[in-house]
Design a protein that fits this description.
The complex is a heterodimer of chains A (about 140) and B (about 110). With about 140 residues, chain A is α/β, with parallel strands linked by helices. Chain A is built from 3 helices and 7 strands, in the order βαββαβββαβ. The radius of gyration of chain A is 15 Å and the shape is globular.
Chain lengths: ~140, ~110
Amino acid sequence: MSEVKKFLYVNRKAPYGTIYALESLEVVLIGAAFEQDVRLAFVDDGVFQLTKGQSTDGIGVKNFSPTFRALGDYDVNKLYVERESLEERGLSEDDLQEITYEDEDDDWEEKPSIHIISRAEMADVMADADVVLSF
Amino acid sequence: MAYQVNGQTVEHDEEGYITNLGDWSKELAEVIAEAEEIEMDDERWEVVNFLREYYDEYQIAPAVRVLIKALKKSMGPEKGNNKYMYELFPYGPAKQACKIAGLPKPTGCV
């Protein structure tokens, strides 16, 4: 068996307008299917990907934001959001959708997957990863 | 390439997944199942309906592992296991059941 590596997917772009956000999410789901340790980081405009109440009716593309809530089923439960990026865009944790997972080791208790961390802590998260993929 | 159902033509891709998700109906599901050489019964409908609900909520077709885990949770271990799923859908539960449910091919399904 090969060793499990820590993959960090860094999301920097707004959800629509470019294909980066959707492609990143697809790669995350594929990576998770191969049972790697998957983490997601949201910085800069990437924080908009997790906002609640998204509607794409006017732009004719699929609203994929509900898919983030399925990540728990794929054992992806470490979503790091940079506090400074939120604040610079006038956002707070309340603007983000609730994403949870059920902890198998704790009687399937529902726990939050989103962690709001500072820019300095984000640097540590990046340093800790074996593989960093930027989108 | 297309399925014929009630005198209507429903387009599908080279693998048999329908092109427009809105075209789906129960009658169409029976037609796709027939093309897959699968006879729809209550057990299979249960899985197909589950997949449609999952897609409706999360906008993705789940990977097999996720599907089985979710079925285990909602229907119990006697149904949420690999053997039972492959008995129902011999060519892959996610692949075949998703096709019948009118969903896209599951992400990460090769």
